[in-house]
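FAQ
Q: What does a multi-component entry look like?
A: The components come first, one per line:
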Amino acid sequence: MSALITLLRRELALAWGKGGGPLVALAFYTSVATLLPLAAGAAPQRLAAVAPGSAWLALALSSLLSLERLFERDYEDGALDLLSLGPLPLEAVSAVKCLAQWISTGLPLAALTPIAAIALGADPRLIPLTLAAALLGGLGFSFVGGIGAALSLGSRRGGVLVAVIVLPLFAPPVIFGAGAIEALADGLNWTPGFLFLGGYCLAAMALGPFAMAAACRNALS
Amino acid sequence: MITFLANPQRFMDLSRWLAPSLGVLAVVLACVGLGMGLNAPPDYQQGATVLIMFVHVPAAWLGMFAYACLAGSAFFGLVFRHSLADAAARAAAPLGAGFALLALVTGSLWGRPMWGAWWVWDARLTSELILFLFYVGYLALQAAIDDEAKADRAASILALVGAVNLPIVHYSVVWWNSLHQGESIFVKGGPLLSAVYLWPLALMALAYTFGFGALWLTRIRAEVWRRRAGALAVQAAR
Amino acid sequence: MGKYAFYVLAAYGVSALTIAIMVADTWLRARRWRAEVRRLEQVLGKTGTEP
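Then the predicted structure of the entire assembly, as tokens:
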């Protein structure tokens, strides 16, 4: 247990230490949210219609940013080798890394999502659900994205490759999350979508580490 | 049967006659199927565009079937570490991607006269598009890793992750579509197919499947030769 | 077929083309590597069984 905590603290320190970590993702998110009305035209009704979904999409894309380096840094300087020999199984290491990524980047992004949605013209009463969905979804994005990051270790293309692998896998949480918020906006029942989102994220957290560990072992072999 | 086929030599012996046989069978079935289909009376609702169904539905089916073959091969490759399974996965992917793309294009051509739009985000087409993106991810990952054994293994893991996700993707898209049922003016025609269309469709689907089998076996043979050539080249260089 | 002729023909044309490309690529690939194996086996002077 203490090994887990130590690793978690290390990951969090690394995330916040180098290169301003979460700030880059937040800046990216803000830029995307700013470009949307510039691209789609600032007509309030049209913007408000796509506001929750766009905020959600920007969340998915911003999560992608910090995922690239999730395993790569440790892979390149040999730390991943040491971690694989350590007391924790690689599955646990992967889970801790994704969790740290969510705490350091996903949480701030989730806090920003309702703000962006409001700025784009969404109804304020949607805020609680948007926040909850963003928190949950961010967790799912971290764990699914981690699979892509681990699989592309040692590859030539890096960042774009992770996006190509991972974005189709993001489709279910995006659909469920945005769908739940839209349902609430239309006055329909939002619970099914939210529950599906939760189910997906739990499954990602449970199964993702196995795929990540297998991918890491493959890259280290 | 799997262990029987796992022996490369036995696989090569079997596929030497099986592949061409499946190919011939596929052509025959396609001719019969098309013959029946093209002679069927035009649907009163869709007119002649219903003919597109005979090339669209089999392609869509193959896109999914090929992915199942890919995932199955990937599973055997990962669990049993058999190079023939890896070769089978590598061979299936481009074919599946081709069929998936074909399904999208023919679906679009069917949709334009029927619904007036080149593309609609209905459940089936959206699922097929995401399936195609899964193929692209698989092929991209495989191409991006230089070490072949590592590339095969990483891609196999991705194929299995994709296989687990596919039912979820399909369900999520269906659910998403059902949210907007009230607004939907795009009603997919043709769930009730009369026997006049059903038989040619079944034959075409079978023809495509046998055709895929022939092509897949041949590509695996090519893979086996390629790896053998690689090993021989290393020897010859000494 | 009338006004639908374009779409039906386009769909069949694209299908035929795609399938033709898949067949051609598969066949050429198989031929190429079989020839390569044969060539290398000759070079090495092996007299193994034909694949």
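Q: Is there any commentary attached?
A: Sometimes. For this entry: The CA atoms of residues 41 and 47 of chain C lie 7 Å apart.
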